[in-house]
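Worked example

This section walks through a single chain of length 626. The input is the sequence exactly as stored; nothing has been trimmed or padded.
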Amino acid sequence: MKLHFEPNLDYQHTAIESVCDLFRGQETCRTEFTVTRDVTEEQQAFAFAQSDLGIGNRLHLLDDEILANLDDIQIRNGLRPSASLASGDFTLEMETGTGKTYVYLRTVFELNRRYGFTKFVIVVPSVAIKEGVYKTLQITEEHFRSLYANAPFEYFLYDSSKLGQVRNFATSPQIQIMVVTVGAINKKDVNNLYKDTEKTGGEKPIDLIRATRPILIVDEPQSVDGGLEGQGKRALGEMNPLCTLRYSATHVDKHHMLYRLDAVDAYERKLVKQIEVASLEVEGGHNRCYVKLISTSNKRGQFSAKVELDMPQMFGVNRESIVAQLRQRAARSEQVYLATDPDREGEAIAWHLQQVLHLRRYARVAFDAITEKVVRGAIEAPRQLDNNLVHAQEARRGADRLVGYQVSPALSHQTGIARLSAGRVQSVALRLVVDRQREIEAFKETKHFGAEAIFDGGKWRAEWDTAPFLKEGEEYILDAALAEEAAKSRLFAVTAAATKPASKAPPPPFTTATLLQAASVTLGYPPARRGRRHGLASGVGRGRTRDDRAQHLSQESAPRRLCHRRCSRSGGKPGLRHHENEQESRPSHTPGRIHTGSLQRVHAGVRGPLLDEVGRRMAHHHRSLS
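Given that input, the structure is written out below as tokens.
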């Protein structure tokens, strides 16, 4: 079976002409460059002996000339002209099933015939689409050869294990079409495209592609660009393209629209059989009056109706159906409380309600918490509407529409991030970051000097007071010689001295947790060993009964009394030092046991036998003194 391709479809011709006319005025020319050789084996050197001249695309049109061509194309196709040429990206929107792949493949041959361009790279989002494009090239090969006088061309699928094809892509004078997935080019640390290899004569494959300045054809760019991170878009830029042609039916970012064949156009041309609409919403249809009756009522001979109307507002028309109901309720009320948010947006909402409902008896209340106390306090202290807050909110809305709505699309276009908002808070934060970065970049490293005197072998130091020697506008001593002279000084005089009382409290006694932690950090004890009791550590703890506790305290009484006497003789306060975290023991509710609040805090290891040993040593010392 042999497929027949219709070469004279008008809408396809229009799309092809739209791209070709973009370069109107371009002469047939090419650029040449040297492909270096860096091989070790003789066979490889012989293989590359006649392939040292690289051939690439060349564009001599100025940006103003391309912009003029672009405006002509857009006006001809009924599109809004672009204000400036922001990038080399150009968009063609074609509905699925209208021959998009055929169009951009034929565009390749048409650009070669008119302007001599030979290097083209087709970037697709998936392996399935890559295989589909390659299959289309195979079945249309004979068709294109017949249309373009048997023009020689080569096409291949990029394969990281066959990088010699990239060298041939750069050096061949024929039309070269490389089909590659975005996953093969968007990771510098993984993809072989960015690594030196002998298969390309010692050069990085990406450098060869960059030198050719290829025309990139992106199939489904919304899937290629890489979303918020934009890895795919950065990879496209790494190829140094002469221009980028973006083909899709569902573009996210539309750069310099050249041609549009949307779903409605395709249906009207009978290119597709039907269109399924998931939902429909009318925006801006306010040229005619709109009145819709919602409901009616007759209470005690008084008729009322609820209608839906288009209400003109400051920044547009809103369709409202509840206004009449609110007005009726407000008219029957003695007082209306406007309790919107306490910020400027809430203040503006309250003001609009007062205007739309024609409120005369109203009070503005504001609260930041929904509790009975706060709400009652707000109602008891009502206030009038703050017109300054209302005006601030309206100014902010105006700034959004005059600036934000214009800046956000341009910012999204420049960064490649879809739906990026140039909000007020974000803009201020960005300005702060930019200003800080400029300060860092403008900072100049400056050496400054000082001097320090060391006394008594380093027991105390004195730093040179440089304030009297600073020049006007200086913060530091910049004169190295002056600092050296100050450092050579050997005569010093004390001009003033002051003595201040200082006190230092001893550390609190160990708790069980802090003692185990200190054992772990200081001694390096493992957990199993930390749990044991060694040496003078006693077993006072929560398992002791009241009798055991009494016996234990009686053992402590002798050294404790001796400690009290020693403290009283030395002028100190009798008794041991108490810390805030110690508590008095209280009777426990469990019979036969004591309350363990203080015992859990003060470790048992610092009591009992340890104090006995201290007492014996202090008693011996007391006898020697007497």
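What to look for: Residues 387-415 form the longest helix (29 residues).
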